[in-house]
Design brief:
heterodimer, A: 302 residues, mainly alpha, MetI-like fold, 2 domains, 14 helices, 0% strand, globular, B: 275 residues, 75% helix, transmembrane helix (chain B), MetI-like_sf (chain B), membrane (chain B)
Amino acid sequence: MQAVVEHSPAPGASARKGKGAGFLLLFPAVLILLVWSLVPLGMTLWYSLLNYNLVDPTLHGFAGFSNYWYLLTDPDFLHSLLNTFILVAGVLVISVGGGTLLAVLYDQEFFGRGIARVLVISPFFIMPTVSALLWKNLMLHPIYGVYSAMMRAVGLTPIDWLAQFPLLTVMMIVAWEWLPFAVLILLTAVQSLDSEQKEAARMDGAGPIAQFRHIILPHLGRAISVVVMIETIYLLTIFAEISVTTAGGPGVASTNLAYLIYSRALLQFDVGGGSAGGVVAIIIANIVAVFLVRSVARNLEV
Amino acid sequence: MALKTKRSTRIAVTLLGWGIALWLFFPIFWMILTGFKSEVEAVSTPPKLVFMPTLSSYAEVFERASYWHFTFNTVIVSVGATVGALLLAIPAAYSMAFMPSKRTRGTLLWMLSTRMLPPVGVLVPIYLLARNTHLLDTRTGLGIVDMLTNLPIIVWMLFTFFREVPAPILEAGRMDGATRWQEMTMVLLPLALPGIASTALLSLILCWNEAFWSLNLTSSNAAPLTAFIASFSSPEGLFFGKLSAASTLAVAPILVFGWISQKQLVRGLTFGAVK
């Protein structure tokens, strides 16, 4: 008994020392992230309650919720919210649906599969401004674009895609960037599927569709949910693709929430209004983030 | 009979696999091709697949001294942000992987959640902070923002790599009298070097392709390649040859990095949820 009491402080002290060192090593990263996440957030909240315009110094003072009121009753805001939703949903359907099918396709063995896979995932590594201009000019330009030439070759009139279907075209460009991401992640998940399990199903006489529905799809469930959530976070703030192709237009036809906030704050210098939009964006993203964090947490063994 | 069906399926799979791959890759292929055309041939109708290759577009891009300026900015910002993030993240990941406390789990998830803050939500304060501290349109300002944006991903990815290093090896080092510093630099780092390298690669890719902050926080002095390419959205973009040559140069390194490190990228991009 005596011995236990005597000896017990030693491991306790070393553990505390370890804890101190662990804390010190962790501290800089935590502190800097804490500042990075809280200070701008607080500032956005604060600005959103102010009358604050960068070019109009006469406009100042506390605004209460008038920035929000002004924003929420603005048809452009509602339109941009709808566009944001259409963009996110459209790209998700294309990339996750297509990604799942392509993951299964590129899991099959065929000649030159390795090279084909590399080609498929390549668009994900192209910087957003390049992919946007590549599509806008080289592919879809109504006169010089390759797609227009193809349409003329089969006797159709080329379409000025970005003028006539701005939102749909932006969606296609963004889907071209994110489909490869979904393929990359889902292919990795498909490959981790036990081949014995697939073999057993085949032995039991399961056709390709039954195998897909009852073995592959359930196995992919978590990976799909991760892809959906990560893409959603990025897709909520699509900016560069819109900025270099349509600049949100014509009118607000292709303006999403991110582009609206940008134009309010940095083109019209309305800090208060832009910040109120920012708060709305943060709230929407947080709803998604809760699900993502929960899903990752389930997988985290600490 | 069964063999025949199998064979025809295989042919169908091959055709489909290659068809889709070529279709998705076509815009990139066409961009590379157009970079080697003269401006006249680049806008010929119908577009030419066979032509006399020329380096004139590349020569023009290189002649504009500003091209090197933008590349220099991208390299400095990407490397700077990556090194900075690694210096902060390696001790943090080491601490959480080998000295876990009951708060480690919460800390990791909190870091993940900071990554979920949409950049556009804090555009206004970051822009004003950068302006007031004279960091607007500077490489330092953009580098700091890139570093902070990617820090959570980097900590996470390092954490998943460090956890694969068997703790007994580190303990053996400690038994031999190694200090924490020696343990980290002389035992852990060499063992985890491949993981650190792929983390650095992911960070470089993300910084190199970052467009939101580049477009909003820089204009000319510190503008990286993403912003430089965006300047082609003006009528100047109708010089297809130059646009293609400049774009090809801007994406080539990252395309190669991406091809090399696909597998590790999956882990980083999904926070270890898919391996």
